[in-house]
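Q: My labmate handed me this sequence with no annotations at all. I'd like to see what the chain might look like in three dimensions before we decide whether it's worth expressing. Could you predict it?
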Amino acid sequence: MDQMTVAVLMTVHNRKSSTLKCLSLLYQQTDALKRAGKYAFSVYLTDDGSTDGTSEAVGGLFPDVNIIHGDGSLYWNRGMCEAWDVAARTSPDFYLWLNDDTMLKTGAIVALLENSTYLGHRAIVAGTAEDRLGRLSYGGRTKYGRIITPDPMIPEPCDIFNGNLVLVPDFVYRRLGTLDRIYSHSFGDFDYGVRAAKKNLTAVVAPGVLAECDRNEALPKWRDPAFSLKVRYASIMGPKGRPFKEQFIYDFRAFGPVRAMLHFLSLNLKVLFPMRYK
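A: Here is what I predict for the chain of 278 residues:
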């Protein structure tokens, strides 16, 4: 039987130590699977303008990683698209999204692939991460954003999912394509789930907790009254904020025009009156 091929997709920026640790944990698992003879893995990593020597360090320690260089303007979503475009030229059987702050637990890759097999390689399989205190941080979610506690034994359906650890089989890619480039940093992962549902494609949460990743709990500038109104609006409109156009497009696709407009209004109120909504 021919090997099945997995393209690992990553986007990184100035987190050299985290990137190297993430890759080390990844290779521990992929090397073992390669030796078993069933799967072959390739890594496609977009370095979006890092200035901390990330590319040089990755190239030195993991010379088979395919590094795509960005200028710092891609951010997560468009950086993933760049990696995906390069990987797609090789027509792999799977695409694995992996964030470089997401540290794989033992058996994580096997769990994703085994659950994909169980579902006939026709479903998106999301992995769940927890923080250092054991609280669920990223993974599959309901339509309204509530994180789903994974069953210890069987995959659970989900509506949307964080892009930290997600397996996309070629069957899904051929129907949905890559992430939507209309989004710069956020929204692309949730949007992929929304688009999948509209195509009657299945998304599930793999059993168990497969990784560790801390959430960023800091209050964003656009909700912080310590900053001026001008700074708050610049923050929410930045790629890592809630750019109104991108937020509206996502809300429109996921919930329709009424909710999209109401959310647009509520975001403006939170920027204008942060103390009231703190």
